[in-house]
Amino acid sequence: MEYLDFELPIKELKDQLEKCQLIGEESDVDVTQTCKKIEKKLLETKKEIYKNLTAWQRVQMSRHPGRPYTLDHINALCGDTFLELHGDRNVKDDKAMIGGLGKIGDQTYMFIGQQKGFNTKTRQYRNFGMSNPEGYRKALRLMKSAEKFGIPVVTLIDTPGAYPGLEAEERGQGEAIARNILEMTRLKVPIITVIIGEGASGGALGIGVGDKVLMLENTWYSVISPESCSSILWRSWEYKERAADALKLTAPDMKRLKLVDTIIKEPLGGAHADRAATFLAVKNAIEKNYEELKNLSPKDLVNQRMEKYLAMGVYKS
């Protein structure tokens, strides 16, 4: 288990609890009461820390190395029903963007999402979750296939942004993202978008236009990362915490600004602390939102989606 800097008090109490239990196992001393006191203190400390997280701490939580990634969610939701589909039929198969058909219960969905790696080798293989243009074109190909067969789409967002390399720009990165945004606004099947980690910039928007947009509690969604914002405004990364506050990128901020529809509550300690509970919460949220969308006609679905996005950013003076 890896701990973030603000989680160190929890680590210390867990270490104390393990030592206490070890003493009880290796000797005849009754340590039951002592262990109970430490467990109580541990729970209180967890509640105190996680109910008062700053914006920057939530950004750190969204990047926790133990946090479940897109394939973890898909495998938990679909089991052995998931069939991954590859390639954009133009350049290559982008490993940072995955997609395919899978079932939750008896309902088939087209799952699309960015996949990060969990160690150095897989991070390089997945390009750190940063898609090239062919990744977005693969996503669009799969969405169009889903539309053809009347299959709802579920997108899972977890990316630090689209790949910013020269070769990506040469192959039309901006156009690929813009094309996806356009096509998703008029796709004739339900689209449910779930932000499961980082939701950065156009890289997230390229698969982020949904009838329902859901955010896990400790995720973020913004036009720019706090570090990049800090480096632009202050010429240094030192102000990343201040930038995170200013960007209003947390789930409660997004909900208040009406940019997302639902916040999915995470287990105490974050998604990585209890993966099974996180997967269940995501599954229930997808099923609930699909129930609200499945009986809408394609025309009503598109009109409702258009109205939703046209209303964003409107204010009265």
Can you describe this structure?
With 317 residues, the protein is of the alpha/beta class. Helix content is 49%, strand content 15%. Strands 1, 2, 3, 4, 5, 6, 7 and 8 form an 8-stranded mixed sheet that branches. It has helices at residues 8-26, 32-50, 55-62, 70-78, 120-125, 133-148, 166-170, 173-185, 201-205, 226-234, 240-247, 251-256, 275-293, 298-310, and strands spanning 83-84, 97-104, 107-114, 153-159, 191-200, 212-216, 220-222, 262-264. The chain is globular, with a radius of gyration of 21 Å. α1 (8-26) packs antiparallel against α2 and α10 (226-234) packs across α11 (240-247). The longest helix has 19 residues, at 8-26. The chain contains 14 helices and 8 strands.
List the keywords.
317 residues, alpha/beta, eight-stranded mixed beta sheet, 8 strands, globular
Task: Write the topology of this structure.
Blueprint: H1 8-26, H2 32-50, H3 55-62, H4 70-78, E1 83-84, E2 97-104, E3 107-114, H5 120-125, H6 133-148, E4 153-159, H7 166-170, H8 173-185, E5 191-200, H9 201-205, E6 212-216, E7 220-222, H10 226-234, H11 240-247, H12 251-256, E8 262-264, H13 275-293, H14 298-310
Parallel strand pairs: 3-4, 4-5, 5-6, 5-7, 6-8
Antiparallel strand pairs: 1-2, 2-3
Helix pairs in contact: 1-2, 3-11, 6-8, 10-11
Global Rg:
21 Å
Low-confidence stretches: none
The backbone outline, from C-alpha atoms, is globular
- What is the makeup of the main sheet? 8 strands, mixed
Order of helices and strands: HHHHEEEHHEHHEHEEHHHEHH
Number of helices: 14
Percent helix range: 40-55%
> What fraction strand?
5-15%
Mean pLDDT, to the nearest integer, reads 94
Helix/strand structural class: alpha/beta
N- to C-terminal separation?
A: 49 Å
Oligomeric state of the chains in view? single chain
Instruction: Give the total of beta strands.
Output: 8
